[in-house]
């Protein structure tokens, strides 16, 4: 197979559908044109119970932090509500989460059984939306739950990713 690993693993958009590296269609509710950090993408139809967001990437060699946020739109002024912000902080070995509604940040949560991210290594984060909460899985292991602070789940229609990582796949 020709090309770099990133080229082989990258998803391509053709006719409005995500395709995997073999060219077969991948059913997806999330459309991402380019996996460039900082990243902002639209979640088709917003969130709902049973919907899952997948973020795969590689942590940079000397990371400080990276963040994944699910927001209600892209607005910066006034800032869009943040349903959940996940932030991996490497010096503190913390994976903190919070939300921001009407410009007010809530109580930050930081307890985790272990810190799952390793510099220069790949990772897989899954955000599963359930009726009362988001369930967060890292590399297939449930790490924590985050109970919804936004009442209208369908309003959560944007994903933003920034920091010290390379994105390899979103879905």
Automatic annotation (TrEMBL):
Supply the InterPro entries for this chain.
Answer: ConA-like_dom_sf, Galectin-like, Galectin_CRD
Q: What does this protein do?
A: Does not bind lactose, and may not bind carbohydrates.
- CDD domains xref list: GLECT
Record domain Galectin: where: 39-171
Matching PROSITE patterns: GALECTIN (PS51304)
Q: Does the keyword Thylakoid apply?
A: no
Write down a Pfam family by its short name.
Gal-bind_lectin
Say yes or no: keyword Cytoplasm present: no
| SMART domains reported in the protein's UniProt record | Gal-bind_lectin (SM00908), GLECT (SM00276)
This chain is encoded by the gene named: Lgalsl
Keywords for this entry?
Lectin
> What SUPFAM superfamilies does the record tag this protein with?
Concanavalin A-like lectins/glucanases
Q: What is this protein called?
A: Galectin
* Listed GO MF terms: carbohydrate binding
């Amino acid at each position: 197979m020709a090309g770099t690993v990133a080229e082989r693993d990258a998803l391509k958009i053709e006719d409005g559908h995500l395709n995997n590296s073999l060219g077969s269609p991948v059913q997806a509710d999330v459309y991402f044109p380019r996996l460039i950090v900082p990243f902002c993408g639209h979640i088709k139809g917003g969130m709902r119970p049973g919907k899952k967001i997948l973020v795969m990437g590689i942590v940079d060699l000397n990371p400080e932090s990276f963040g994944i946020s699910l927001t209600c739109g892209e607005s910066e002024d006034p800032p869009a509500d943040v349903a959940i912000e996940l932030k991996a902080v490497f010096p503190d070995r913390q994976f903190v989460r919070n939300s921001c509604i009407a410009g007010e940040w809530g109580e930050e949560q930081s307890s985790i059984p272990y810190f799952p991210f390793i510099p220069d290594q790949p990772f897989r984060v899954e955000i599963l939306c359930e009726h009362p909460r988001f369930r967060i899985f890292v590399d297939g292991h449930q790490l924590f739950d985050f109970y919804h602070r936004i009442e209208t789940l369908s309003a959560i229609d944007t994903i933003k990713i920034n920091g010290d990582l390379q994105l390899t796949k979103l879905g």
